[in-house]
Amino acid sequence: FFSPLRCKTSLTNHVSQMATPAYCGGRFPVPPAFDFVLLPLKTKKVAVVSIIGSWDSLTCGSTSQLIENFLQKSVFSLPCGKSVIQGFYDCERQLIFLQFRDTEYLLDELLSNAKNSEDILTEWDMERLKYLYYLFLVSHFILIVSYGTNLDPRYVALFKLLNRIRTKLRHSVETLLRTLPLPRYCIAAGRIATPRLLFLFKLPPTISARKLAEVFIF
Description:
The chain crosses the membrane at residues 131-149. This is Nonsense-mediated mRNA decay factor SMG8. This protein is of the alpha/beta class. It has helices spanning 5-12, 64-71, 103-110, 117-123, 126-138, 153-177, 184-189, 207-217, and strands at 27-30, 47-53, 85-90, 95-100, 141-147, 196-202.
């Protein structure tokens, strides 16, 4: 995969500074306040995997657990401040994991009511939408977690909204990419990477499982 770490850092620095600048054991908020080229590298190329999706309201489990289960260690145990995106850099596998933390709020508060995209762009926090769109600019894979056996229809509205944002920000993103050491095809595409969307459908707990959990949780 072509994804120079220096380019990724430069692009994140142009996102509004909402995160707490820190790097600890591979974990970092976005945007980071350090240069990725200073990190230990096996190669200058990495793969970026982003996760967005619903969290388990029963067990209070978040999508970050998918990353921790894969790595077999707790990498998101420390607080991440006000960061909308939290990340983890796995030097051994040359993987960068990014998790969008506001998906549930976005789906519930923003897309549950019937609104057109222009109303949404006007009423909602544009900065958070830019963070979500950012993942579609730098990721090689985006894992979308949805509960049930079918895709949550609110995601369809979300994808349409992101397409509207892409149109609005196309010129700004293209101008920024021209300042980075990127191949021409990246500039022409208006993104560092073209993500492959992967969908993970999780079945909700059964009624009996919920009742059992309530005994221990509550």
